[in-house]
Every structure is written in C-alpha cells, then in structure tokens.
Amino acid sequence: MRKMKEPKTMGTELEFLAAAHFMQADIYTFTNNKWIKYSAHQMDKDINVENEAIYLHHVEKSSHYEFVMNVEGNRVHNLPEKSKKIEDCTSVKYDFDQISRNNCTNAKNNNTLLNETQVDLTDLRRKRRRELEKMRYCQNDTVRDKKKRSCKETYSNNAIYRSLKIYKVCMKYINDETYRQDLIEKGKMKYIHDLDYRQRMKKKGKLKYEVDEKYRDNLIEKGKRKYEENEAYRANMIENGKKRYKEEEAYRSSMITKGKQKYEEMKHIGKT
Question: Which top-rank group of organisms is this from (predicted)?
C-alpha cells in the first residue's frame, strides 16, 4: 500500500477490497469499457454493506481513478472517444448494464500483490471471523449449545484433538497461578454441592489409592502431617473413628486385629 503514494501507481484489487471492507461499501471501477465490482462481502459474508456504492473511473493516462457522480443504464459510450472531449470525468455517464458483479479477475493491470498487504488482509479476515464467532457464541444459546456438542463429540472421537486439549489445559494449570487457584476452588465447590460428582471422585480416589503405591504413600504422609498439625482435623478424625467403630462390624474387627498386632510388636520391642 505504500506504493500507492507514488506517481503512476494504481491500486490493485487487494487495495480496493480492503477499502470496501473498511468503509463497508461496494466499490465499482470502470476499466476497459467494463464495470468491476469490489464488494466487502468477498472478504466477510456477514458484514453489513451500505446501500450506496462508490463509483470510480480509471483514467489510463494518469493510472489513477476519478469519482463518477452519475451512472445511467441503456447507454453505451466509447470511453476513449469520450475521454478526449470531456476533461472532467465526473460528468461522464457510463453504461451500468455492463457491470461485472463479484468479479475482480478482469483487472489486467493488477497482477502484483504485496505480500505484506495480503498477510494484513488475511489477518483482518480471521480476526473479524473470530470476533463474529465469539459474539454469536455469547449471545445465541442455540449456537453455543451446538458448539459445545460439536466440541464434546470431537473430544470423544478424536484422540489427537483430545490429547492436544489435555496438554493445553495442563500447561495452563502449571503456568497460570490464577487459573490454577480458580480451578481448585471450582472443584471444591462442585465436590461440596454435587453429590454425583463427589461419589465419582471418591470412587476414583479409592481405585487410585489401591493401584498406585506412590499415590497411596503420599496420601498417608499428608494425612499424618495434617493429623499432627491441625487440631480440628485431628478431633474430627477421632470422632469419625469412634462413630465408625460403633456402627461397622468389619471396621471394628479390623481395628481390634491391628491393635493386637501393634501390641505384640510393642511387647517384642520391650523385651529386646
């Protein structure tokens, strides 16, 4: 786009599309006796476009464009001959019936596209699309439910997608302190208020306790440390133990057996 400031340098279709998208208005150019339409919808189908359009006449000698103030149908003009007689191209009346809609490929002089401009427009389209998707997701319940169902199905059926999502969440949990604390707090609240969730978590914890020796040892160590340091926790554990001892026969028998074993061990230590 920087080259547009140079003399005898005309805009390519990319600049016209960018201008149409920015102004949210269609742009028509008259070149080689043909009308060419540059529409913002070619970049974003959901964008709102003004009813009034911009009409430009390509002046070949200067390689620039001039405004067309009046457009009429049912008239065909030989543009080169008219251009010789009329100095002000804003008063020329062109044939509107020859408009070539949604076609930007006929601009023969627009062969070179700047890479940086192409990247900018691509990013602009992506950014605009993401913003619209976020807006629809936040405001439309149907779109939101559909998106959630789609993500759940993809998560269940696509192992690569699932692994990637888990990896991203794990990395965010490790690196983002705020996210980690928020997730822990949400988990605690869900554990307290959601009975089904609490039962599932207990079941998973018991299974992991039985299978994973490292997890079991770590949990026992944490429990001992908490029992020694936290008086309220210690009192609660003692109360729960007494209650369980009275109500559960299997637990009572197990505790009696463990007590006898510990007694024998202590007696053996005393003898030595």
Answer: Eukaryota
Give 104-160 pLDDT, tens digit per residue: 443 334 444 334 444 455 666 777 778 788 888 888 888 889 888 998 899 999 999
**Cα–Cα distance list, 56 to 27, 51, 72 (Å):** 8, 16, 14
**Total of domains in the chain:** 2
Instruction: Decide if 177 is inside a domain.
Output: no
CA separation, residue 217 to residues 224, 237, 257, 262 (Å): 11, 19, 22, 20
Domain membership of residue 255 as a residue range: 212-272
Measured in residues, the chain has a length of 272
- 119 in any annotated domain: no
* Residue 15 pLDDT greater than 90, yes or no: no
Distance in angstroms (rounded) separating the CA atoms of residues 16 and 21: 9
Within a domain: 156? no
Last residue of one domain, picked from the residues 49, 81, 113: 113
Spatial strand order in the sheet of 54-59: 64-67, 54-59, 27-31, 34-38, 99-100
Query: Could you give the maximum distance between any two Cα atoms of the chain, in Å?
Result: 127
Q: Give every CB contact of residue 190 below 8 A, 6+ residues apart in sequence.
A: 197
CB contact set of 23 (below 8 Å; sequence gap of 6+):
40, 50, 54
